[in-house]
Amino acid sequence: MGIDAELVVTELVANAHDHGGGADTVRIYVHRRPVQVRVEVDDGLPQAPLTVGRSRLGGFRGRGLVIVESVASWGVVRRVRDKTVWATVGPVAQVSGAPQSP
Known about the structure:
With 102 residues, this protein is an alpha+beta fold. The protein has 2 helices and 4 strands. The longest helix is centred in the N-terminal third of the chain and has 18 residues, at 2-19.
C-alpha cells in the first residue's frame, strides 16, 4: 500500500506540474479502517484535459494516469478557477475530512 500511495502522489504532482501549471496544494488523508490513503492535488488550470494513455508532450509520455488507475480509484473535481485531481489507494470508503468525489 505504501509504495502505491507514493506512486500516486508522484504521478499526480508530476501531472499538475506538466499539464496543470503546477501543484497549488497537495493533501494526503490516511484512514486506518479500512486502510486507505487519499491524495488530492490542486492546480490552476480547470479546463486542462486529463487524457489516460496519451500526452501532448510526446509518444513516450502519458502513462501516469494508466499507472494510477492500476493501483487506485481516481477522479477530478473542476471548479471555475482550479481543479482537484484525487486518487484513493485501498478499499473504497470515505476518508475522514476528505471531500467526496462528485
